[in-house]
Amino acid sequence: MLKIVKYPAAILKKKAKEVRGITPDLLSLISCMELAMEKNQGVGLAAPQVGFSRQIFVVKDDKKSRAFFNPKIRSQSRQRSEDEEGCLSLPGLFVLVKRAERVRVSCNTKEGKPVVVEAEGLASRIFQHEIDHLQGKLIIDRITPFQRWKIRKQLQEIKQKGRTQQNTSMHLVH
């Protein structure tokens, strides 16, 4: 079972590497990510959150999960909404994050097929959150200085616990 990488691990602040071809190892990684997402009761999980610097994320879609490679936001609505978000890499922390109501994302499926996904509401929020992870951004990078000040003690506790976590970062070899 893959472990969730916790803040302040360096991999969470780095842009993930693009996937150049779907291999059996990557398909195995996706299966492990789906299990980790389920076990931790998440609705989305990005590869850097399990120690892999690859542009891959999985999301829970109704009862099944889906994987996406090399996602890019192509357009987003001007309409924004603010809602509470949590993150498996920041356990117990929930902050208000403003995001676009709708996004259009180009990406590849695990079959290697290029697709365009149009997401709105909660799905839009999940896609933006996971794509942020692939760009080295966390929800705490999307909040105001005042919000950050309000959560400073909680963030410090998470940081201390995260530093004690064993380094589980791995790299796929082609």
TrEMBL record:
Gene3D superfamilies: Peptide deformylase
Domain of life from the UniProt record: Bacteria
Cofactor, free-text remark: Binds 1 Fe(2+) ion.
Enzyme class: hydrolase
Single GO biological process annotation from the record: translation
EC code: 3.5.1.88
Residues annotated to bind Fe cation: 87, 129, 133
Catalytic activity: N-terminal N-formyl-L-methionyl-[peptide] + H2O = N-terminal L-methionyl-[peptide] + formate
Chain's role: Removes the formyl group from the N-terminal Met of newly synthesized proteins. Requires at least a dipeptide for an efficient rate of reaction. N-terminal L-methionine is a prerequisite for activity but the enzyme has broad specificity at other positions.
Protein name: Peptide deformylase
Organism name: Candidatus Yanofskybacteria bacterium RIFCSPLOWO2_02_FULL_47_9b
Gene name of the record: def
